[in-house]
Design a protein that fits this description.
The protein has eight helices and no strands. By secondary structure, it is mainly alpha-helical.
Length: about 290
């Protein structure tokens, strides 16, 4: 948000009627329609899904472009700034609940579901079954019924630890960039923002190699029982959030290079930074609960 003279900034900005909400809804309609048909065997479903995604992304680009023009035009005052801050806060809170549900699923499987399978009835049916979490007892990954192929669990060394260092470093570079922007040092801000974006991109590359290693060397797949499903569910959704956060920071960096934001008004930057730090904190929880325990 650019700063403008107090007298020219409206107390609260009400935009004109916009086509963007209904156009975005149309794109999402085709996404859901195509996904539902694709998973049920309809070949045309994938074309509907990709068409809907392309439509939706074009609408988002136009919508965000209009919002940037409004901001740079001095139409956003204090009340709009507050609304953006509350909106981003609630969005991140919803993401906390999102990951909280998946962490709870991991906890429930480890503490309740798997031990319950070791009851006397199941012990008589499957005497070779070990009712412990696979990462606790080596070799406890094979299925007595032969439904799940034996696999190896993913430890913290070295790829997850490297990714932890990358994300923590990106949090540091982002904080340095924020302080530089607050002091009006745009060149330093842009340099450290590019470093943050690159670190996020390298994180995704390392995670992609980790998945390749899991499938080819460890035989660890999404179908590898509850361990495989919770592992890929948690790390995969987090990786998607890293991708979204990296794109947010990339667009903020490009806006910085165009001269957007000032030391006094830069919530677009701050909102993306809040999201990135949230992604960092979630990864620390993943690193401990998924890879170490």
């Amino acid at each position: 948000m650019s700063s403008t003279a107090q007298g020219s900034t409206p107390y609260y900005f009400v935009p004109h009627a916009s086509r963007h909400p209904v156009m975005a809804a149309i794109g999402l309609f085709f996404v859901i329609l195509g996904a539902g048909q694709w998973v049920n065997g309809a070949g045309w479903g994938k074309y509907s899904l990709f068409f809907g995604l392309a439509w939706w992304l074009v609408v988002l680009y136009q919508w965000f472009r209009d919002a940037v023009h409004e901001s740079e035009g001095g139409l956003y005052g204090h009340k709009v700034d507050l609304s953006y801050r509350w909106s981003m806060s609630w969005f991140i809170f919803s993401e906390v609940m999102f990951f909280g549900a998946f962490f709870t699923a991991l906890w429930w499987a480890r503490v309740h579901s798997v031990p319950a399978l070791g009851s006397l009835d199941n012990a008589l049916l499957w005497p070779d079954f070990k009712a412990v979490w696979p990462s606790v007892v080596a070799g406890a990954t094979a299925s007595p019924a032969g439904i799940i192929e034996p696999f190896q669990t993913m430890g913290p060394f070295w790829l997850p630890t490297i990714n932890t260092a990358l994300l923590l470093s990106s949090g540091v570079t982002l904080t340095i960039a924020h302080h530089a922007l607050q002091h009006g040092n745009r060149g330093k801000t842009i340099a450290f923002m590019w470093m943050t974006v690159i670190l996020g991109f390298v994180f995704l590359c390392v995670q992609g190699y980790e998945y390749f290693h899991a499938y080819t060397d460890l035989n660890l797949k999404l179908t590898s029982g509850v361990y495989g499903s919770t592992f890929f569910m948690l790390t995969g959704f987090h990786g998607f959030h890293v991708l979204v956060g990296m794109l947010m920071l990339l667009f903020i960096t490009l806006r910085l290079m165009k001269g957007h934001f000032t030391p006094e008004r830069h919530f677009g930057f701050e909102g993306a930074a809040w999201y990135w730090h949230f992604v960092d904190v979630v990864w620390l929880g993943l690193y401990i609960l998924v890879y170490w325990m």
